[in-house]
């Protein structure tokens, strides 16, 4: 039977790339929502994305899944606040 070995560094690198991609996507979503979202909401979300990105990469050494978790939370926050909230405010129920 072949010996199976999981390379922890490969998983660490994979989750780092995925987390960085999710965080970049969340930042782009916030930037592209400037025309439809109120200015205060866009700036608050941009600050949130920047702060949580910094926080997650500070913890990357001890928990390599933190950037992926933070990127997911950033994208979900954008969907809930801009996608749902602004849609309800602008186009009714």
Task: Please describe the topology of this protein.
Layout (H helix, E strand, L loop, with lengths): L7 H25 L6 H20 L7 H26 L2
Helix pairs in contact: 1-2, 1-3, 2-3
Beta-strand content bin: under 5%
How many distinct helices? Answer: 3
The total strand number stands at: 0
Instruction: Assign the structural class, choosing from mainly alpha, mainly beta, alpha/beta, alpha+beta, or little secondary structure.
Output: mainly alpha
Helical content class:
over 70%
| Main beta sheet strand tally, sense and closure | none
Low-confidence stretches: none
Mean pLDDT: 89
Note the run of SSEs as H and E.
HHH
Query: What characteristic shape results from the CA principal axes?
Result: elongated
Roughly how many Å is the radius of gyration?
17 Å
Distance between the termini: 60 Å
């Amino acid at each position: 039977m072949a010996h199976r070995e999981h390379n922890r560094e490969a998983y660490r690198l994979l989750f780092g790339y995925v987390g960085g991609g999710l965080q970049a996507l969340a930042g782009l979503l916030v930037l592209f929502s400037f025309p439809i979202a109120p200015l205060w909401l866009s700036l608050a979300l941009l600050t949130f994305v920047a702060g949580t990105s910094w926080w997650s990469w500070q913890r990357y050494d001890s928990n390599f899944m933190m950037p992926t978790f933070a990127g997911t939370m950033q994208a979900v926050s954008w969907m809930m606040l801009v996608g749902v909230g602004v849609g309800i405010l602008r186009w009714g129920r």
